């Protein structure tokens, strides 16, 4: 008897669920003209990060992932085991150019052409940053420029950079106010924001919050210089708050602080009271029992009235 032939294993297709601007959904006729995923230096940490260029590299988007364990996607007739949810949001490419300009200042400390500054053997696709037409127009915000025989040379300017970053902070503050984003010592849900809390928010709270957002795209030492440039006072040690019963959302699964599985199999109506109960516990049990009777009689009366 012939044994049945085993079907060859189907290769898993690499697919992800990506939330991106609508402009990226209009795919071109040729695949090579479509969006490009690439790894570049994170301008804050210097580590590798995932980015997305549209064609022809006129828009740069950073890609971040929300990941939960034991999560998959059903895409068409397939199950994608990589259950991450990717978000692609626009980012100013000048932040990534600034990483190379600061590096060149520390290593060379002289004027250089831009194509010699933005060079990275580890991430060769960094040259795509130079294809953006707005990059060269905005370089004067962070550099000193010289032109010799029609060629431009650039050198990092901390003074100009801090002024440019302050404008970014001011724009972010305006956006926070217009969007009614809660800022301050303790961020609250927009559903529970009171008028007193909204009126108690100071301008400094908005500036500090915006500074924190901008600091995610610049090195730490530059972030500290920006804080001084904004004249932000140093934060005092906050008063410790009592731990919240309900845990905050995180990328990982929420862990229950109590063992709720004990309610799965125990019949609360037939559960016997412990014979070693204290007098206080017995009194509480009587109150609970009388309370349960009053509640049950109330719902019984409502049911009879409904009939």
TrEMBL record:
GO terms for biological process: fibroblast proliferation; gene expression; negative regulation of gene expression; positive regulation of fibroblast proliferation; regulation of DNA damage checkpoint; regulation of G2/M transition of mitotic cell cycle; ribonucleotide metabolic process; RNA catabolic process. Non catalytic subunit of RNase H2, an endonuclease that specifically degrades the RNA of RNA:DNA hybrids. Participates in DNA replication, possibly by mediating the removal of lagging-strand Okazaki fragment RNA primers during DNA replication. Mediates the excision of single ribonucleotides from DNA:RNA duplexes. This is Ribonuclease H2 subunit B. GO terms for cellular component: nucleoplasm; ribonuclease H2 complex. Residues 27-92 form the Rnh202 triple barrel domain. It is found in: Nucleus. Residues 233-257 are annotated as: Disordered. Residues 95-226 form the Ribonuclease H2 subunit B wHTH domain. Belongs to the RNase H2 subunit B family. Keywords: Nucleus. The RNase H2 complex is a heterotrimer composed of the catalytic subunit RNASEH2A and the non-catalytic subunits RNASEH2B and RNASEH2C. It holds the Pfam family RNase_H2-Ydr279. It comes from the Eukaryota. InterPro entries: RNase_H2_suB (IPR040456), RNase_H2_suB_wHTH (IPR019024), Rnh202_N (IPR041195).
